[in-house]
Design brief:
2 copies of one chain form a homodimer. Chain A has helices at about 40-45, 95, 125-130, 140-145, 155-165, 180-190, 205-210, 220-235, 245-255, 275-280, 295-305, 325-335, and strands at about 1-10, 10-15, 30-35, 60-70, 80-85, 85, 105-110, 120-125, 130, 170-175, 195-200, 215-220, 235-240, 255-265, 285-290, 320, 340-344. Chain A has about 350 residues and is of the alpha/beta class.
Chain lengths: ~350, ~350
């Protein structure tokens, strides 16, 4: 089959790889129909995180079950399924607590496993990870596109909102105008936030933030941006979603958080975080978050997507086919696209 | 009157200062009977934080109301009162939410105000800050000594436990064997922890930790200590209390925290916190805490002290009189005493 393989920073290629097959009784093989390129994929694409030539790419995907092992009970051949970006065994202490990302037997798609930016994947622990969609939506391309972000960015934005403690009527700030930040806006609105302030820099994305529910846009940077949010909130937001993953973004998030409240952080940290710990201390600002247990959130969010109450599809502003994956990376790296959908 | 005044690192003196008086209608003047020297006082004593010559010392105290302004309603002349280490107006948004340490009109005793290591203090917002004790305990010296830590270290240890999310039956780890760490042990036990692991270095304090409720003592350092706690808990404690305030202690606390759980931090940060942010991220370990709103906790903890169910007095292992305050600092700096009580 064809799949996307990492060669070097800036060099990803769609090439022939071995076909996946059922190896364990709990495996399934899924033929991919849709995948995404993630903002977090840009870290290795830019050479900012260590990555090995030969590793596979793509952790967000949807497809049709092609084959299941004898131990698989909840999905069958022909089912359309989605999977969270991290797989897990579904049985350990952490899986039972809904923190599947800390599963002792879990891992991420891609790297040394099959990746979603390809024609098929072997999916371990199929019962734990594959969520079947209703057959009735099979021909609704728009709805399938709206469901796809539940594999990562929508669940991640929701995690930021949950960790930040967004509540009904709250004033919320979102740091970052990428796909996760935009999904954070949707999540905050869904949880009842009354005012949603977004800090970002790119006009097109900020316009989209407004369409998705943002009430206030702050486009300045650093201390100026912090000062503006403190002024407009009279002392800080009641919940702050950090959706970037840099030291500057984290410190801005702490800086605009109201005393006694929390920053929900989901930006993948690429820094040793010399953070504003004194402000956290003197104002009891909490920090809660991390890699999102998206599997746990699919059950909560999917019904809202199916019913049309939640639609994260606008974050997918570029569509490529499988041979176009390298172009998708290039466009996202150049900030020409927020997030690319891959139609396989 | 006499009061303790900072001159230079290592040089604190008890000397003549102006008598306090009621200046605002909401003030009271309180004659001090008991005070403490705090582990946090050692930071300026050691020259590690900026401090101005002439500033007063002592933020933990108890005494008898001598005079009240015309606006004071809840305490009267002759009442024995305690006060939290930070004063507040009792009326602002943060005071109403129980986060009196973020009060816009609040401050700390000592520095530019009267301090507790002296004969008397002017207490602003007396209704908000002074808590009257029952007259019946006036002659119970042991009970008064047990109440005194509610002004800071007992409330601070409790804050760490609350922020860490200690629950009934939990396995809890406490980083630090100082007065706050020891109070953290008491707080964790009081909240129902089943197993309480203490990380510390000094045998006498660790013995005391055991008397106060610790079930396991870890006396090694750094990575070795982290490995021991991870082994004995099979993957980390369900709640971790960080009661030191150094980068090493904070990273140990993050290192021994179970995925999905929280570190409650109350050690005053004297570091820019190059913290183990990646472990926090990949295992959803939260960080919650800061300067403790002790005022909010007095109502909860005082009844337990009055009834004898909670007794933090063993952390006060040295008693000096007012002229002996400099000796108290010296003894604590030399680690000869955990915490000194000052009888005025």
């Amino acid at each position: 089959m064809k799949a996307t393989v990492f060669h070097a920073p800036g060099d990803v290629r769609v090439e022939q790889v071995p076909d996946p097959s059922v190896k364990e009784p709990t495996d399934a093989v899924v033929r991919i129909t849709h995948a995404c390129i993630c903002g977090s994929d840009l870290w290795f694409y830019r050479g900012l995180t260590p990555f090995e030539p030969g590793w596979r790419l793509g952790h967000e995907w949807m497809g049709i079950v092609e084959e299941v092992g004898p131990g698989v009970r909840t999905v069958k051949k022909g089912d359309r399924v989605i999977a969270p970006f991290a797989f897990s065994d579904g049985e350990c202490e952490f899986c039972r607590r809904g923190l599947q990302t800390s599963c002792a037997h879990g891992g991420f798609w891609g790297t040394m496993n099959d990746g979603g930016q390809g024609e098929a994947v072997r999916a371990p622990y199929a019962d734990a990870n594959l969520v079947a969609l209703p057959p009735s939506i099979e021909n609704d391309a728009d709805l399938l596109k709206a469901i796809l972000p539940l594999t990562d960015v929508m669940g991640t934005g929701h995690h930021a909102a949950v960790c930040a403690g967004v509540s009904k009527g709250a004033t919320v700030a979102v740091v970052g105008d990428g796909a996760v930040g935009l999904c954070g806006v949707l999540a905050a609105r869904r949880l009842g936030a009354e005012r949603i302030i977004v800090m970002g820099h790119r006009a097109g994305r900020m316009d989209l933030a407004k369409r998705l529910g943002a009430t206030d846009l702050v486009m300045s940077s650093g201390e100026q941006a912090v000062a503006e949010v403190l002024e407009m909130t009279k002392g800080g937001a009641q919940a702050v979603l950090e959706c970037v993953g840099t030291s500057e973004a984290l410190n801005s998030a702490i800086g605009i958080c109201r005393p006694g409240q929390r920053v929900g952080f989901v930006g993948v940290p690429h820094h040793s975080a010399a953070m504003d710990f004194r402000r956290m201390f003197y104002h009891n600002i909490g920090l809660q978050g991390g890699v999102a247990p998206v599997r746990a959130y699919i059950a909560e969010l999917l019904p809202d997507v199916l019913s049309g109450r939640l639609d994260p599809s606008p974050v997918l502003d570029l569509t490529v086919e499988l041979p176009g994956v390298p172009e998708g990376y290039r466009a996202m790296d150049a900030r020409e696209a927020i997030k690319a959908m891959v139609k396989v």
